[in-house]
Amino acid sequence: MEIFNEISPLRAFLKDKKKSGKSIGLVPTMGALHEGHASLLKSSISENDVTVCSIFVNPTQFNNPTDLSNYPRTLELDVEKVIKVGCDVLFCPNENEIYPVPSPLSFNFGELEAVMEGQYRPGHFSGVALVVSKFFHIVEPTRAYFGQKDWQQFTIIRQLVNDLNFPVTLKTVPTTREADGLAMSSRNARLVGGQREKSIVFYQALTFTIDALKKGESFFKIKEEVAKRFETHSDVRLEYFELVDSINLKSIAIVEMADRPILCIAGYVGDIRLIDNMFIDLT
Ligand code: AMP
Fold first, then answer.
1. Whose CA is nearest to atom 22 of ligand 1?
2. Running along the chain, 283 residues long, what does each successive block of 10 average in pLDDT?
């Protein structure tokens, strides 16, 4: 596997590959890699001649400085993991390589970012769009892979790609979960003591809701019940729980209002922020 810390040699390497007609898959990550990332990498490896994994903890997408400083960084282990999965190229630039000077650019995704993550993490998606745009320009991938777990992020990136005509095909990969259902996340590494057991409340809220919807209960009532469940746990806090149309992220009252409805949830266990989601198929 080739490892690059700088943009120019990476570009030269990829230019050569592209000249010989090779397709390039890009899997952008912030490191502290887990099986969810591995699943994205495997999808890319199976569909492209060359797979590039990027590891960069992007400061511009953190609205909370403590979250940024606490974000797990495990580069040595990550290198072993990407080699093991069979990735071709690892791009792990430092902050200065990506932001030699602070960028004044900002993005506004309108209604897509007015809800859920956007509402609770002001500026987050602008930072995501900035760094993803940079990586698309640096790598010029044929395909880029994103996890379903960050569904709102995916819809934002789809908007970015459409509006700015990036010549890339976007792919989503289903969420990889722990045996008890907890969505894998780099932040899970920070769960200590009883927090790990408590974190399952997010997954349980999603499965409980889908069962209740199947029984014909109203989402409004289920949401109240879920909020109550969160209140019974100490150290756990619900930030939002929404039923939305997965295309435009607009809130819906009943699943029939969207072709592909999705439940999205976020909150805290201690000071660790977790998110999850699940598509709804009542058939
Ligand atoms: P991150 O390193 O958290 O920025 O995530 C990098 C990519 O991996 C994003 O596209 C995420 O949506 C995706 N990802 C994170 N967790 C999972 C998971 N449990 N299953 C599948 N993809 C994931």
1. 147
2. 98 98 98 98 98 98 94 96 98 98 97 97 97 98 98 98 98 98 96 96 98 96 96 95 98 94 98 97 81
Residue reference for tokens 């939305």: 244
Strand stretches in 109-248, DSSP E: 143-147, 169-173, 236-245
Catalogue the E-assigned strands of 21-83.
24-29, 50-55
Q: Which residues neighbour 141 within 8 Å (Cβ) at sequence distance 6 or greater?
A: 24, 25, 26, 52, 168
Tokens of 103: 């960028």
pLDDT at site 281:
87
39 lines ligand 1 (CB under 6 A): yes
Q: How far is the CA of 184 from the centre of ligand 1 (A)?
A: 8
150 within ligand 1 shell (Cβ under 6 A) = yes
Distance 218 CA to ligand 1 centre (A): 31
- Sole residue written with tokens 């976007």: 170
29, 30, 44: residue to mutate for ligand 1 pocket, most atoms within 8 A of CB? 29
pTM of the predicted protein model: 0.97
**Tally of residues, the chain:** 283
The reply to whether ligand 1 has any atom less than 6 angstroms from the CB of 266 is no
Read off the tokens for 213: 């919807």
* Residues recognised as catalytic: 37
d(CA 230, CA 267): 10
